[in-house]
Each structure stands twice: as structure tokens, then as C-alpha cells.
């Protein structure tokens, strides 16, 4: 018998190549699920690792939605967890200008580096959607 999912996992793989549309959609969905009382985890992978850095989210505003930094702030304030692929974050950080780093690791304070083992464990316990 399979276990009932304990929450939702949003796996985001797209970065700035679409102007932030999928990132905005992912975090708008995450905030909507939280508003319904659901547990939500976001995992940033591949090009989406850029969203682990504050400087990347500041200027993203897709018509018809709030700004990306609004959604990420709401998500974080509601206790949402954000993981980023560790190797993806390292590769992305190497390409960022030095002034884009806000912490010693360069990541936003709410982001935790993780590997594929963490992603696998989340896939076992959460309903997942990939954007």
C-alpha cells in the first residue's frame, strides 16, 4: 500500500530564458497551494538555480501576475522550503557578478543546497509537478 502524499513538490528547471514566466507561475502556484493549507516544497534544478540568488528575482514581472519577488517573499514567510541542486548552484554562482552574492554561500538565506537524493526522497513523499 502506498503512503498518502504529505504535500506538493514543484520542480522548477527553467531560468531566465523565458523571462521568468515559469518561475513566476511556479511560485504563484506554490503560494496558492499554501493559501489552501497545503505543504509545498520547491526544488530548483538546472537553469532554475538562478532563482536561488536574490539579484535574479528583483526585476521579474510577468503581465497578469505580481512580481516574482512578491511571490517568493510570501512563499518564504508562509514557511515554504526551497532547495537548489548543489552542483547547479555552484555553476550558476560562478557566472554571477561578485555583487550578486548576499551570503557567504551566495544563496538567498531561505535556500538550501541539496542533491538528487533529496529530490528523490521528496518525490516519494510529495505529489510533484515540473515547470
Describe the model:
Helix 1 packs parallel to helix 3. The chain has one domain (8-130): DsrEFH-like (Hypothetical Protein Ychn, Chain: A, 3-Layer(aba) Sandwich). It has a five-stranded parallel beta sheet with strand order 4-3-2-1-5, sandwiched between helices. The protein is 37% helix and 18% strand. Helix 4 (86-95) links the parallel strand 3 and strand 4. The protein contains five helices and five strands; from the N terminus they run E-H-E-H-H-E-H-E-H-E. The chain has helices spanning 21-35, 54-57, 68-77, 86-95, 116-125; strands at 8-12, 40-44, 81-85, 111-114, 127-130. It is of the alpha/beta class. The chain starts with 7 loop residues before the first strand and ends with a strand.
